[in-house]
Every structure is written in C-alpha cells, then in structure tokens.
Write a structure and sequence with these properties.
This protein is an alpha/beta fold. The chain is built from 9 helices and 5 strands; from the N terminus they run E-H-E-H-E-H-E-H-E-H-H-H-H-H. The two termini are 27 Å apart.
C-alpha cells in the first residue's frame, strides 16, 4: 500500500466480489483489507485498536457466516464509540424497511446488490471525507477535555458564570469573593483553556457542547 492510499475495511465472504470491490477501490487510491467473516475483522481491530482513530471506512455485507453486518455495525458503535469509520452496508437480500432501519441505526449508506460499482466508490469517497471530519471532531473534543481537566472546581463554576454573561463583580458578589480574586481566576481560566478572550471561550465551549450531542455516525 502506497502512502497515498487509504485503507478500507471490507467484510465480505464472497471472495470474488471482495476482490472486484478491492480492484475498483484501488483506482480511487484506496486499499482494501478483506475479512471473510465479521469475527476475523473483530479480532483484527482488537489487536490494533489505535487504527480506529485513522481515516478509513467499513464496508460490510449484511449476510455473513456468523455475525451479520448489521450486528457488526451495532457492536462497533457500542464497543468503539470513538471509532471514526463510517459503515456502508451491502446486501443481495435487502428491502426498503431494512435500508431505512439501518440508516436510522447509524449506517452511513445502504446498497443493494447488484449495485453500480461507481455508486459504491462514490459512497466510499464520501465516507472517507466523513471519517476525516470525525477525526477532527474527536481531536477537538479530546483537546477541550484535556484543557478542562486542569481547571479547579472553583474555576469551573466561575467559567460557567462568565459564559452566562455575568461580570466579575456579579460573580464576586454571588460567591463571596473580591472582584480582584475573580479576575485572577478569569485569567487562569483563559490560560488553561488556551484562549485570550471570553468570546473565544464561548465559541469553543459552544462548539464542544454541539459536537458532544451530535450523532457521529
């Protein structure tokens, strides 16, 4: 695999189809890692958990020997919530209800065989872009949480009051401190959170809260 190629995880027990998909995606600068069973895929990610933070996506056949592709997707969401790999489900036995349910349950895309190969390639390219967005989101959330851990309990209280547009004097009166003490805490909060203004603090806190509530998949 060249440095420019992005690894794609393909769980497909039909070797002929798997090889065809791999060849197609190679033309898109992607390299397929093929697993004939969901259990093989699970064993691989359990031995290489750091890979779950790298750009990729998962393509899984719905009908597989053993664990199904849908059950595999559910397991990934439950056991690896920080995984940045969107899931594309493929099947030769699907219907509209299955497709709708799968998308509602977190699938990035659902394709029914025989599908247009270039439609799959397009979905994979979109999933890779989504994976990159998820990486950036996860990095931002991790950085914000790391900064927040350095705040004292008192500073967390003061930060929340600042974000609710209370002045240093108002906070001092509410907490029984001097205005000067609140100003010292305010400066410490800015330093620990890596910002230089209340506006910046409000922006990153708002983004953090929004992303934390968002559905990653």
């Amino acid at each position: 695999m060249s440095k420019s190629q992005i690894p794609i995880q393909l769980v497909e027990d039909d070797l002929h189809l798997a090889q065809s998909i791999s060849g197609l995606l190679a033309t898109q600068d992607h390299a397929c890692k093929i697993y004939p069973h969901a259990e093989d895929y699970i064993a691989h990610i359990n031995s290489n958990p750091a890979n779950l933070a790298q750009t990729s996506c998962l393509i899984a056949d719905v009908r597989l020997p053993g664990m199904s592709g849908i059950d595999l997707m559910h397991m990934m969401h439950k056991d690896h919530p920080n995984c940045v790999w969107p899931t594309i489900l493929i099947t030769g036995h699907g219907d509209i209800a299955m497709a709708v349910n799968s998308l509602q349950e977190g699938a990035f895309a659902f394709l029914t065989k025989p599908f247009d190969p270039y439609a799959l390639a397009d979905k994979v390219n979109q999933a890779v872009l989504k994976s990159e967005e998820l990486q950036k989101t996860l990095a931002f959330l991790s950085e914000f949480d790391a900064h927040s851990q350095h705040l004292t309990d008192q500073e967390k209280i003061i930060m929340e009051r600042l974000l609710h547009n209370q002045t240093s004097r108002e906070i001092a009166e509410a907490l029984g401190n001097s205005t000067r003490t609140i100003e010292v805490h305010r400066a410490a909060i800015f330093t620990k959170m890596g910002v230089t203004s209340l506006m910046q603090l409000a922006q990153i806190k708002g983004r953090h809260d929004l992303l934390s509530k968002a559905d990653k998949h």
